[in-house]
Amino acid sequence: QVQLVESGGGLVQAGGSLRLSCAASGGTFSTKAMGWFRQAPGKEREFVAAIDRSGGRPYYADSVKGRFTITRDNAKKTVYLQMNSLKPEDTAVYYCAARTALYYSTSSSAKDYPFWGQGTQVTVSS
């Protein structure tokens, strides 16, 4: 089993930046592909970004491409989401997710991730 704990959320003005962290414990982090998802009030959970087990092949939703960057540090068992040029429509609870994967494998489907964190709130004011 893998336990995931997100941190770094908060309130920021439009145009600002935040960096989310997701610390993993249990399991073997280096065998896990990681993803970030978000869910706004009244909306379904949506894909934000994903990265393969070695830190390559970052993949982004069109809505965040060019503004968000996903990275990971396998030694620290942590995945990050750097969010720049934030917009009010980025307001949501952000979730970290993990899946055991082959090398170079990423996924944008929430159904492929069996392990989830509790989420961290990001609020962007206009």
Secondary structure topology:
Elements lengths: L2 E5 L2 E4 L4 E8 L6 E8 L6 E6 L7 E2 L7 E6 L4 E6 L8 E9 L14 E2 L3 E6 L1
Parallel strand pairs: 2-11
Antiparallel strand pairs: 1-3, 3-8, 4-5, 4-9, 5-6, 7-8, 9-10, 9-11
Order of helices and strands: EEEEEEEEEEE
Please compute the radius of gyration using only Cα atoms: 13 Å
The assigned structural class equals mainly beta
Low-pLDDT segments: none
Q: What helical percentage do the residues reach?
A: under 10%
Please state the overall shape, judged from the principal axes of the Cα atoms.
globular
- Our measurement of the CA-to-CA distance between the termini, rounded to an integer number of angstroms, reads 40 Å
What is the residue-averaged pLDDT? Answer: 96
How many E-type strands? 11
Strand content: over 45%
Structure description:
With 126 residues, this protein is an all-beta fold. It is 0% helix and 49% strand. It has strands at 3-7, 10-13, 18-25, 32-39, 46-51, 59-60, 68-73, 78-83, 92-100, 115-116, 120-125. Strand 4 and strand 5 form a beta hairpin. It is globular, with a radius of gyration of 13 Å. It starts with a strand and ends with a strand. The mean pLDDT is 96.
Please supply descriptive tags for the structure shown above:
126 residues; mainly beta; seven-stranded mixed β-sheet; four-stranded antiparallel β-sheet
